[in-house]
Amino acid sequence: MTDHEEVFDRIKAAREQAIHHTRLARQFAIERRDLMQSLLDQGVSQSDIARELGVSRQAIQKMMAC
């Protein structure tokens, strides 16, 4: 195996890991949104959720929009 082939293999492996992590991040974002929606449905305000999570209300709005 040439040096170039080894580098290409490492690039391909890094790309596969990045794709995997992106998929996981999307799944977690959906789960997070569903959990927050559950709280909102129970009457918890976006401000209360934001305060508990240590983020701004605008951050909650952005998370819910995704």
From TrEMBL:
GO molecular function: DNA binding
InterPro entries listed in its UniProt record: KorB_DNA-db
Keywords: DNA-binding, Homeobox
Gene3D superfamilies found in the cross-reference section: KorB DNA-binding domain
Stated name of the protein: Homeodomain-like domain-containing protein
Source lineage: Bacteria, Bacillati, Actinomycetota, Actinomycetes, Propionibacteriales
